[in-house]
Queue: 2 jobs
Job 1
Amino acid sequence: MNILFKTFINYFSINQQLTEQTKAEICTHLSVLNLDKKHILIKENQYHDFAYFVIKGAVRSYYLKDGIEVNTWFAMENEMVGSLNNFKDKPSRETIELLENSTLIAINFKKIKPLMFTNIQIANFVNAIIEDYALFLEDKAFSSQMLSSMDRYVLLLDKEPKLFQRIPLTYIASYLGISRETLSRLRAK
């Protein structure tokens, strides 16, 4: 089994419950991609069969509102990226773009999904991925609705300080729901 695939499978705690045969079966539906900055992984309003695990690089998700990009999340090493809508055979609501040259593991969910009905270990593995994503979404919903812009900024700075070194501030401001000027004022405090 390729070391990058092991990295991906070992990332999820469910790994201890996977037999070597199941790991090998999952790996047949994985591929390594080396893609350039600005590459679009998933386009808004399109169907897509893959989710991705970031080995190296940075990724952003955004949607267009009145022609303006609204950033919804960022991902870096050891994080999953994809559209849950695509997993449910619906078009994506977001565009996912690489912000750096990146190495990714592509997971063909179109081929893995049917295996969930015949292999409980694969079903548990996929559910672990979806649970991680659901927790992320819950945290994001809470902070966007319950915290002030200053508190959202401080939380992001505490939890993800590397974002401020690798992600353009314009994108971070959009993610926080504030203007670039407001972000500059918050950073000055």
Job 2
Amino acid sequence: MSKSINKVILVGNVGKDPEVRYSQSGTPVANSIVAWKRLAEIVGEYVSKGSKLYVEGKIQTSSWKDRQSGERKYRTEIVARDLLLLCPRENGGGGHQRPRHNENQDQPSRAGSGEIVDQNIPF
């Protein structure tokens, strides 16, 4: 059996403020780069337009049939597994600490910064 690798790494500035919503079961989810559970809560609390981020995740494609036209529609999105804020929180409080969160962790850890590439992450 062959293995496949599905890994995406994005480094850059957030293009717009993320929206955090809750599923019917109460699970938090943030969009355009999709973040779930505690990672979505961290995005809602610490990330805003212009934030410098490192995002690691996977590409996921889903399809559905449009109710009005009957056409097959497709959506391809990045599902975040790990997030690192590359700059201190600007609205006070954060100091120089940089929260990092992996979806497999319960609490964010603190990590240092890396080189920042001037690109936009489409949150």
